[in-house]
Amino acid sequence: MAPRVRLSTQRRRSAALLLRRVAYGESDWIVQLFTEVDGAVSAIARRARRSSKRFAALEPLHLLRVEYEVSDSRDLATLTEVKLQLPRLGLTTSLAKMEAAGSALRWVRGTITRNTPEPRLWAETNSLLDRLVLCDETQVLAKLAGAGLRLLDAAGWGLELGQCVRCAKVCPENSRVRIDVPAGGVVCRHCGSVGKVASSLQRRRFVEAVEGVDGPIDTVGAKLAIDLVTSAFEAHGRGEAT
Ligand SMILES: [Zn+2]
User: Fold this and answer.
1) Buried-most residue among 22, 71, 100, 195 (CB within 10 A)?
2) Within this chain, do residues 155 and 233 fall inside the same structural domain, yes or no?
3) Element containing residue 217 per DSSP (H, E)
């Protein structure tokens, strides 16, 4: 008789963010979660579309408390419980805030992997969502820009903003620079001067943001940072950036 294989099923509990939800079969959802304890978790929420009660909290942006079962033999976990740990209703009443939160969750979604907790990405993402709840609408882009630069850094893909990535020449304090995402940061004039132009003040604000201080930044600067961060996450997702 062949030995019986014991498949171990483990029950896990974690705080989580919902990143994606796709209808599956007649009545299920397949969800992608960013969990505090396990990083990315894909799970099936059985009968979630039939019974509105059990998984009612399964909405993006809010901080969730989830329980799920993982087994060695399957990639897909089974979601057994979802509770609302911290509702962020202030996000759902503003389109600008919802779009900003959506951008951050997309950046994170392409970065996290299974069985790999990401404490910095976790903390930074939740901190941004909490700040978006409280901030004035005029502050949304600035908040997203600062958090985006930190998320990129936390993912290990931070842009070099202090010196040229090719020749290591230190950026002059008071002149504008060019930042090239595929090259990984600033490229000086002697090295081809490619990429997007940032003023000396914008560059200084970006450096401060990575260090954790969101100084006052204008809309143009915030949009530039968001653009750079989006390109960097996309390039790394495709394996193109250095
Ligand atoms: Zn150079």
Assistant:
1) 100
2) yes
3) none
